[in-house]
Each structure stands twice: as C-alpha cells, then as structure tokens.
Write a structure and sequence with these properties.
- The chain is mainly α and 142 residues long.
- It contains seven helices and no strands.
- It has a domain of 94 residues.
- Helices cover 70% and strands 0% of the residues.
- α4 crosses α5.
- The longest helix is centred in the first third of the chain and has 26 residues.
- It starts with a helix and ends with a helix.
Length: 142
C-alpha cells in the first residue's frame, strides 16, 4: 500500500518542484545583447591577411621612428589621421587621447587594406609641401 502511494505521489511532487524551478528561472535577469556587441564580437574573430600584417609592421615602425625623431610635422600627422578616419570604418565613434594614439589604433584596424597602408606610408615619407592643404583644413575643423 505504501508503495502504491509513493508511486502515485512521486509524479505530483516532481511536477511541483519542476514548476518551482521554472518559475525561478523565469525571474532571473537576461543579459541584453545589442547590435554593437554582436559586431564587436565578430570583429574580435576577424583576422587580417598576412600581406596586411607585413605592411602594417613596416608602416607602424616607419610612423613610430619618424614620430620619435620629430620628422613628422603637425600637418602630416593631421593628414594621416584624416585619411585613416575616412578609410577605416571600425573606429568611427571612438574618442582618442591624441592624434598619434588615433593613428596607431586605426593602423591596427581589421578593415584596413594594403592600399591604405601604402598611402599612409607615402604620407609619412612625403614632405609637408606635397600634402593637399584641403585635407589639413578639413581635419583641423573636426
């Protein structure tokens, strides 16, 4: 008789406890996933091609050396920054500490191409009189 009561009562007890567990799970807060979070996660997994990495290493070293030796004028730095702002879309809304920080960060972007790096190299190595003054004026306004 006791076995019969246990067999009949056991499913009822299990049902009650599972319903309580489901109610507790429904009360737990859910994390909000935004589109920016999804895009950021996708960009973390995005890998640049080897050719871009080689050009990046050379461009970054060239910029670093010229900046350390004070061979880059303010106009050239602004021209490089302006070009990278227009060509790199990964950091559109990011605020940077200074122009050099912006350039270093945008050079690391996942969506930069070898063509962009070639242009940055040419901007670094050109003299200040060879830079289009319209770039500098527009960059200074920003």
């Amino acid at each position: 008789m006791l076995i019969l009561i246990v067999l009949i009562g056991l499913p009822i007890v299990i049902k009650i406890f599972t319903n309580l567990g489901v109610l507790k799970l429904k009360l737990l807060p859910r994390s909000v996933v935004t589109a920016e979070m999804v895009i950021e996660d996708m960009n973390k997994r995005k890998i640049r091609p080897a050719k871009v990495e080689v050009k990046y290493a050379y461009t970054q070293k060239l910029f670093h050396d010229n900046l350390r030796n004070k061979e880059l004028s303010r106009e050239r730095i602004l021209a490089i920054k302006y070009y990278l702002e227009k060509s790199v879309k990964q950091y559109e809304h990011k605020k940077f500490k200074n122009d050099a920080h912006a350039i270093y960060t945008m050079l690391k972007a996942k969506d930069i191409t070898t063509r962009n790096l070639d242009i940055v190299q040419s901007l670094i190595s050109t003299g200040p009189k060879q830079i289009d003054p319209n770039w500098i004026n527009i960059a200074a306004i920003k």
